[in-house]
Amino acid sequence: MSAEPAGPSLLEARDLVKHYGGVEALRGASFEVRHGEVVALIGDNGAGKSTLVKCLSGAEQADSGEVLIDGRPVTLDSPTAARRHGVETVYQDLAVAPDLDPAANLFLGRELFRTGLLGRLGMLDKAEMRRRAASEFARLGVQLQNIDVPIRSLSGGQRQSVAVARSVVWASKVVFMDEPTAALGVVQRERVLDVIRRVRDSGVAVVLISHNMPEVLAVSDRVEVLRLGRRVARFRTAEATLEDLVGAMTGALHQEGAA
Amino acid sequence: MSTSTVEAPATRPERTGFGRRLVSANTFWIGLVLVGLYLGFSVLAPSAFPTLFNFQTLLIEASVLLVLSVGMTFVIITSGIDLSVGSVLVFAGVVGAKAMEALSPGHDATSAGWGVIAVGLVAALTGGAVWGLANGLLIARAKIPPLIVTLGSFGAALGVAELVTAGVDVRTVPQALRRTLGYGTSFVVVPNLVLVAVVVTVLGGWLLHTTRFGRYTYAVGSNAEAARRSGIGVTRHLVLVYLITGLLAGLGGFMSLAYYGTTTISGHSTDNLNVIAAVVLGGTSLFGGVGSMLGSVIGVFIPAVLTKGFVILGVQPFWQPVAVSAVLVAAVWFDQRRRRTQDRR
């Protein structure tokens, strides 16, 4: 029942190895995501999920193995490099600037300048950024009463939504989301899952790292399972059960050829 | 982007009205305090306090501090601190004065011309920039806490200045410089020293509030890791911020030279604290990410108005630091309370 993905892969990792001192976090891990799908990346604590995401989003570099985007090998030596390839990441700790307003956070590192001489002197087009931010938030269903208050005065869910929107808006190929719903209430969680579906429907692939199996089954198209630094199983979500997923994570279920 | 899912009932976010933003701003309240102080002293001493001469001296005496506080505002918004500004100011003044003396016959720069003065200005600015660069590299590259780095340069810059001069103030400052920048006026009533300070402050405010450089300054102070992940060159940015602060301290040194006609080596040991107090008084948060240039201007003038007012009223001027310190501690307390109520977790 190994679910070999059909069609060309969008982003692929082959045999990644990553050591932290004496600890082998990845031992030849492979991973694949295709156009327009939501792939859940699951595994027990210490399976290497976060390390794999870091290697694929440019935050860390693997010691060996290769990463391919659209079938071509690429070097992702910084988050900026990954972003240039259309790969964005929502980090678990959000990584927003709490003192800046939502629009400023959305455009952080990608500011729009005024036209003409003032723009060339570095002057920002705040009105245009605010306008575009408002329409992006509306499109993604992010509800904010005010667009010019610092993020720190927003609720946890709103802050999360801004962090998610910040990655989603700029991603042209893949968005990694590391536990995007971990700290959220039921309603907010639904909202984030809704955003994930919207992103998928727009043709951008989503990689969801989650411990929440019902959530994984609800939103993903495929599931890839990591265990002890290697891929041990892949499922089509429609054909998988909770028992399959848990079995693969704990090592009770073996899938030939998944690694 | 196509959306096949059901549209969430997303309300379009609104902008807060100008009035509400004004009243909720720290700057507004601290500005009211300044206006209140000014009016209060004017009422208590109607013949002496609200005069043109008093206003001019008030501005002149605050000019150098204002220039320093422009740089300090950037530094504190990055959640850093710069204790070295006063010493760097002295160092830059000494370097500028020595350079001008070296180019003058008999090492007396009193009658030196504009060519020599220009060299002196460049020397002072360079002297300030070098210390700023050193601070920036040690803080951003070597990752030594800014408090320690600038405490080091606070001592070292003054020490080097004293080594260069053997502890004796340089007193031959070009008359041409003193007449113009020192106590000359433009537009009939505007002291030139004040003019320079205003230009620097306006440029600083423009840079901080309207440009990408300013926005990155806030971002770095708010969450350096988030800034780094957004592709902002945090190290480079911090180095530039400290470099600008050093450069402005250099300019302050040259202005001080023009005004006092001597290097005033021993007169700047508390500049750092005065400038930090002014910036924090103006609503810039020591935790970083929050602050404004207008606030710093107000913060510079509150102690200045207090001093002037006390002198005119015959109150012992020693009350000034007491009053300023009380306001300062209160301001920080309010800032912390505001942050705690805003932080919704």
From TrEMBL, chain A:
SMART domains: AAA. Residues 11-253 form the ABC transporter domain. The keyword Secreted does not apply. One of its GO terms (molecular function) is ATP binding. InterPro entries: AAA+_ATPase, ABC_carbohydrate_import_ATPase, ABC_transporter-like_ATP-bd, P-loop_NTPase. The keyword Transferase does not apply. Keywords: ATP-binding, Nucleotide-binding. CDD domains: ABC_Carb_Monos_I (cd03216). SUPFAM superfamilies: P-loop containing nucleoside triphosphate hydrolases. Pfam families: ABC_tran. This is Sugar ABC transporter ATP-binding protein. It comes from Gandjariella thermophila.
Automatic annotation (TrEMBL), chain B:
GO terms for cellular component: plasma membrane. It comes from the Bacteria. GO terms for molecular function: transmembrane transporter activity. CDD domains: TM_PBP1_transp_AraH_like. It comes from Gandjariella thermophila. It holds the Pfam family BPD_transp_2. InterPro entries: ABC_transp_permease (IPR001851). The chain crosses the membrane at residues 28-46, 112-134, 146-168, 180-208, 239-261, 273-306, 318-335. It is a multi-pass membrane protein. This is Sugar ABC transporter permease. It is found in: Cell membrane. The gene is rbsC.
